[in-house]
User: Fold 3-isopropylmalate dehydrogenase from Compostimonas suwonensis.
Amino acid sequence: TRTVRLAVIPGDGIGPEVVQQAVRVLDAVAASADLLVEKTSFSLGAARYLETGDILTDDDLAAIAGHDAILLGAVGGDPRDPRLAGGIIERGLLLKLRFALDHYVNLRPTVLYPAVPSPLANPGEVDFVVVREGTEGPYVGNGGAIRVGTPAEIANEVSVNTAFGVERLVRYAFAKAASRPRKKLTLVHKTNVLVFAGSLWQRTVDRVSAEFPGVAVDYLHVDAATIFLVQDPARFDVIVTDNLFGDILTDLAGAISGGIGLAASGNINPDGVFPSMFEPVHGSAPDIAGKQLADPTAAILSVSLLLDHLGLGEAAARVTAAVAADVASRGGAARTTAEVGDAIVARLAED
Ligand code: NAD
Ligand code: IPM
Ligand code: MN
Assistant:
C-alpha cells in the first residue's frame, strides 16, 4: 500500500462544494489502487482572513509544503466586500502558494469529450494542453502607482521574464509535445508589441527546439490565437505561453470544450522539490455558491491530474474514463453538485 499525504484547501464559495465531490472520487479510486490517502484539511480563505487577519502564515505554508500534493477548490470571497478588494486572498493565498512552491508549470489540458456540447458549431477534435508559465510575468507584483487618485496618477505593472524561468517552462512544454502523438508546439505571445519579453520567449523556443527535432513549432500572437481557438481549436496540440496570456486563454479553452465547470489544472513543480497543487481553472463563483449548482467535474478531473503526477497513471485514467462516460450521458438534465459526484463514483464502482 502506498501512502499519499494530501493537503486539501477547500477555500471559498463553490470551492468546498466541488472539493467534497473530488475527495469522494479520490477515495473511491484509492481503494482499488492500493493507495492510502492521508488528508489534512486547511481552512484557508476569505472567512478565515476576515476572522483572524491571517491569509497564509509561515506555519500554514510549512505545513502544506510537508505534504505530497495539494488539492485546492477555489479562493476569493464576496466581491462586494471592500475588505477583500484587490484580490487580497487570491494573491495572498493562491499566488503565494504557486510562487512559494515554485509551481512554474501551470498545466491546463483541454479535451472536448465525445457527446459534450460545445458552443462551437464545428469544433472538430479538440485535445490540447496549455503550458502556462506560473511564477513570473505580470503576476510577480512588481508594480506601483504614484499620485494615486489625482488626474496625474501613473500606475505601472511590470512583467518579469527571466531567461531561467522561460527556458525551464519552454523545455517542459517541448518534452510534453514530444510525448504526445501530434508533437506540435505553438508559442503564443505578443512579440509585435511586448518586444523585450517576446524576443526572449521566441529565442528560447528557437534554441530549445534544436533539442526536439521531432516537434513542429508554430507561433501565434495572442489576439490571433483567440480567433483560432474559436474557429479551429483542433489545430492546437501544446500551447506554451506567458502567465497572463495563459490565464485568459484557458478560460476561453474551458468555454469551447463544454464549459468552465469541466476545466482542470495542475500547478506543477516538475523538479519535485515542492508538492504540486491541483485545482479547477474556475474561481469561487460567488453567484452560485452554497446552492449545489456548481459542476464538480473540473475538481474531479484535477484529481486525475494529481494521480497522474504521482505516477498513478492507471488510477488517473480510471477517473478520466468515469468522467468521460458521465459527461457523455448528461444530456440537458440539471443535476446538483453531489449528484454529479454520485454518478461518477458509481461509474468507478462499475468498471
Ligand atoms: P469564476 O470562475 O468564479 O466564475 C465565472 C462564471 O463561471 C460564473 O458565472 C460562475 O457561476 C461560473 N462557474 C464557475 N465555476 C463553475 C462550476 N464549477 N460550475 C458551474 N458554473 C461555474 O470567475 P469570477 O467570477 O471571475 O471570479 C470569482 C472569484 O473567484 C474572484 O474572487 C476571483 O478572483 C476568484 N478566482 C479564483 C480562482 C482560483 O481559486 N483558482 C480562479 C479564478 C477566479
Ligand atoms: C486562475 C485564476 C487566478 C490567476 C487568479 C484568481 C489569481 O484566475 O487560476 O486562473 O489569475 O491565475
Ligand atoms: Mn483564471
